[in-house]
Design brief:
mainly alpha; 2 domains
């Protein structure tokens, strides 16, 4: 075996191990959701359920079961999450595109400091932002507007990363393309929306997917700002199955499986655009 083939085998083995490390928890989550209750904590653990049950999925969607417990229908949480994540994605793109374009095209005082600020801001955990944002939203009087505080908080969390990624994508577009469009009579805004943005589609897809998943799975802001149960997203709904004396782990895993579906779908159908958008400018 040649050296090159040995290196390929080693890379394949490493990639296989890393893939299994990611897939095993997902597999365990899905199988636990369909296991009978008496098999969930069986020792030694059962890798393959001897029988399957779907009462856990019936329970999370409010369908009648033999268990008797009644929980809020998962569709309520799904609706809330879709509203929050969709509007967050739109706001993030609407603000990140002009900001990233300005940072990539205009020379102004403090540009380097602003980019450094964005790099630092994206490293701040959401738990540090809860109290300042709560005070700001209280002063602005938007706490009474449905979903508004969570949407703005999630947008603030996703925006620094989105600007950095899109700025890198804009830097890949030659300025000569814009200059040619200006000669033909196009304004700067027309050039941005009709010429430049289609060329950075992969970067916008990456930012959109990232922003959507951030808002879809965010927990701290939703728990802090949304007091009404009927307005809480799906990330909070998982904890309705945890009680003081009893927890329904199979229903919790079924609910978690529903939560993971958008992330899996986004990766399967948008992985090429996401990877190209994330790696844009890496070899500049």
């Amino acid at each position: 075996m040649t050296r090159e083939k040995r290196e390929n085998v080693v890379r394949f083995c490493i990639g296989l191990v890393v893939t299994l490390l990611y897939l095993i928890p997902l597999y365990w989550m899905v199988t636990t959701s369909v296991k009978p209750v008496d098999q969930i904590f069986q020792k030694p653990p059962m890798l393959f359920p001897s029988s399957f049950q779907i009462d856990s999925y019936k329970q999370i969607f409010g369908l009648p079961t033999d268990r008797g417990e009644i929980y809020i229908n998962a569709l309520v949480y799904l609706k809330n999450s879709l509203i929050i994540a969709s509007i967050t994605t739109f706001l993030t793109l609407a603000m990140a595109v002009p900001a990233a374009y300005a940072l990539s095209r205009f020379n102004f005082a403090g540009r380097t400091a602003f980019v450094l600020f964005l790099l630092v801001a994206q490293m701040l955990p959401s738990v540090l932002m809860v109290i300042p944002l709560f005070v700001i939203f209280k002063q602005w009087g938007i706490s009474s507007i449905p979903y508004a505080n969570v949407i703005l908080a999630d947008t603030a969390l996703a925006l620094p990363f989105a600007i950095i990624v899109l700025r890198t994508s804009f830097l890949q577009i030659p300025c000569e393309i814009e200059e040619a469009a200006w000669i033909d009579g196009g304004s700067r805004s027309q050039v941005l929306f009709y010429i430049i943005m289609p060329l950075v589609r992969s970067g916008m897809v990456a930012v959109g997917v990232f922003s959507f998943l951030i808002a879809w799975g965010e927990f701290v802001f939703a728990l802090s700002f949304l007091q009404k149960v009927e307005m809480q997203p799906i990330s909070i709904g998982t904890f309705q199955f945890i009680g003081m004396y009893k927890s329904n782990f199979d229903s919790m895993m079924a609910f978690s499986t529903i939560v993971a579906i958008p992330a899996v779908i986004a990766f399967l159908f948008l992985q090429k655009q996401f990877i190209s958008g994330m790696t844009a400018g890496s070899v500049k």
